[in-house]
Structure formats: structure tokens, C-alpha cells
Design brief:
about 325 residues; MetI-like fold; two-stranded antiparallel ribbon; 12 helices; 2 strands; about 70% helix
Length: about 325
């Protein structure tokens, strides 16, 4: 197990290096820069522009800049934000990461709390009205993109009912009292994935309910609830967990549009701003963070397999 984890962590470092190199190269291939007229409020005089580029080393060749960035990166320095007067990227990401992480976890709660029970309910009532309704709900949610659902929820809760402000995500994550502001954004973000999980859970449960050990449990006189939860569901969750890993990573790193729609002050909105302003440090920091989250979540999923099924070994 330890050797497996060490090997995966080593590949994580190699992958992050490749991601950093590709992102850095593409970032500098895009026309413009952090101090050009399109990236600042007022055009800078030529002398000031040259001085700023020389101060931050932007006039050096790209390979030299990348080498200098890697040297700072291994020491835990992600650079500074040009758009925010030299503010350290690490401080910026720590401020912005919590709302995005919290929103992603709340959306993951929607996915698991809604998708797994819906799939189990559909499987245990196969061919009945409950199964038909569950499949209909899952199909409808899977067909609607999250940003479309977000606008529909805004229309219902903010315009028609007037229960929430349009930018209901403002201040989200600042305190426990702000958590209700993330409920609607979390539903919009997690609903499509919830539909996917419900369908996978249903298919896996139908297969598990036909296994011999389930029939044996029924023959022993166990209650239907015990058979479903203690015997069928545990084995049915293995393919579900396989999908939940990428889903969790996608929810944490893929909330950019939802954050913009609801006004959530997360790292996704900061990433959009950094791309527009050519803020190189923030672009690199958020990209590496997203890559690290995806790979670490996938590692956690692999480590969960032996817990669910002792027959699985990691090498």
C-alpha cells in the first residue's frame, strides 16, 4: 500500500510539472500581457511599461521565466498577482478557495444525498411508478446543463418568489450564517451529476439484487431493508464510488460558471478575472490547484476500493 501511494504521488508531481509547462507556454503565446492597454484600466506610458516588465522579469525569454517560476514553486511561492498590486497568489487563493471548496462539498452532498437514494429507490421498485418517476427525473436533470438550471432557479426563487437576492452567493463562506446562500447554487451545480449517480446506482443495485448472496440473505429471513442496505448496497457502491471521485473533483474545480451566475466569491470567479487581465500568477496557481485536486481525489477513490471490497488489492 505504501509503495502504491508513493508511486502515485510521484506521478502526481510529474503530471503537475507537465501541466505547469503546458499552461505556462500557452499563457505566454496568447497575445497581450498583464500591463497592456487591454488588461489595465488606463494605458501605461511606454517607460513605465518597460520598467514594470523588467521588474517582474517579463522581458526575459519564456524558458528563463519558467525556470525562475519553478524555482519559486518548489519553495512554496506561487508568485504575485499583477492585477492586485503585487498581492501574493497564495494569500489570494487561500481567501478564494474556501467558498469554492464549500460550494463543491455542498453540491457533492446534493449528488450523494439525492442520487444514491433515488437510484436505490428505483431499483427496489423496478417497473413500478416509483421507478418510472425516478428515471424521468434523472433523465430531465441530466439533459439540462447546470448553467441553464441556475438561471431557472434564479427566475423561480429570486424573481417570481422573491425569497433570495439575485446575487445570493455574495458573502457565501464568510460564516456559518452564510451557508443557506449556497443551497440554490449547490443544487444547480450538483443536479446533473446527481442524475448520473442515480442511474449508475440503479443499474448497479439491479445487478446486486440478483446475486446469490442476496437470495441467501432473503432466505435467512432478513428484512428487505437489511438485505438492501447491508448486503446489496455495499457491493453496488463500488462502481458508484468509481464515478464519485471524478464527480467530486469536477464539482470543486468546475464551479466557475455557477460562481459567476450567483456571485459566489470563489476561486472560479478569480480565475475568470485573471484570464481577462492576463494575471499570470493567478492563472498558474489556480490551474495547478485544480490539477492537484483532481489527482488527489482520484487517489482517494483508489484507496477506498479495498475498504468497500477486501478482495481488491492495490499494487
Amino acid at each position: 500500500m505504501a509503495r502504491y501511494i508513493a508511486a502515485r504521488l510521484l506521478w502526481t508531481v510529474v503530471t503537475l510539472f507537465a501541466l505547469a509547462a503546458i499552461t505556462f507556454a500557452l499563457m505566454h503565446r496568447v497575445p497581450g500581457g498583464p500591463f497592456d492597454a487591454a488588461s489595465v484600466d488606463r494605458p501605461l506610458p511606454a517607460a513605465v511599461l518597460e520598467a514594470q516588465q523588467a521588474y517582474y522579469g517579463l522581458d526575459d525569454p519564456v524558458p528563463v521565466q519558467f525556470g525562475r517560476y519553478l524555482g519559486h514553486l518548489v519553495r512554496g511561492n506561487l508568485g504575485v498577482s499583477f492585477a492586485q498590486q503585487g498581492r501574493p497568489v497564495t494569500d489570494l487563493m487561500l481567501d478564494k478557495m474556501w467558498p469554492s471548496l464549500l460550494l463543491g462539498l455542498m453540491a457533492f452532498g446534493v449528488v450523494v444525498g439525492g442520487g444514491v437514494p433515488l437510484g436505490v429507490l428505483a431499483a427496489t421498485h423496478r417497473g413500478r411508478a416509483v421507478d418510472t418517476v425516478a428515471l424521468g427525473v434523472a433523465t430531465a436533470l441530466a439533459a439540462v446543463p447546470s448553467f441553464v438550471l441556475a438561471f431557472v432557479l434564479l427566475l423561480i426563487f429570486s424573481v417570481w418568489l422573491g425569497w433570495t437576492p439575485v446575487f445570493m452567493g455574495a458573502g457565501f463562506g464568510e460564516s456559518l450564517s452564510s451557508l443557506p446562500r449556497g443551497i440554490v447554487p449547490a443544487i444547480a451545480l450538483g443536479a446533473p451529476a446527481m442524475a448520473l449517480i442515480s442511474r449508475i446506482t440503479r443499474a448497479s443495485m439491479l445487478e446486486a439484487l440478483e446475486q446469490d448472496y442476496v437470495r441467501t440473505a432473503r432466505a435467512k429471513g432478513l428484512s428487505p431493508l437489511a438485505v438492501t442496505l447491508r448486503h446489496a448496497l455495499r457491493n453496488a457502491l463500488i462502481p458508484v464510488v468509481t464515478v464519485l471521485g471524478p464527480v467530486l473533483a469536477g464539482l470543486i474545480t468546475g464551479s466557475i460558471i455557477i460562481e459567476s451566475i450567483f456571485g459566489v466569491p470563489g476561486i472560479g470567479s478569480a480565475f475568470i478575472t485573471s484570464v481577462t487581465a492576463r494575471d499570470y500568477g493567478v492563472i498558474m496557481g489556480t490551474t495547478l490547484l485544480y490539477g492537484a485536486v483532481i489527482m488527489l481525489v482520484n487517489l482517494a477513490v483508489d484507496l477506498a476500493y479495498p475498504v468497500l471490497d477486501p478482495r481488491v488489492t492495490l499494487r
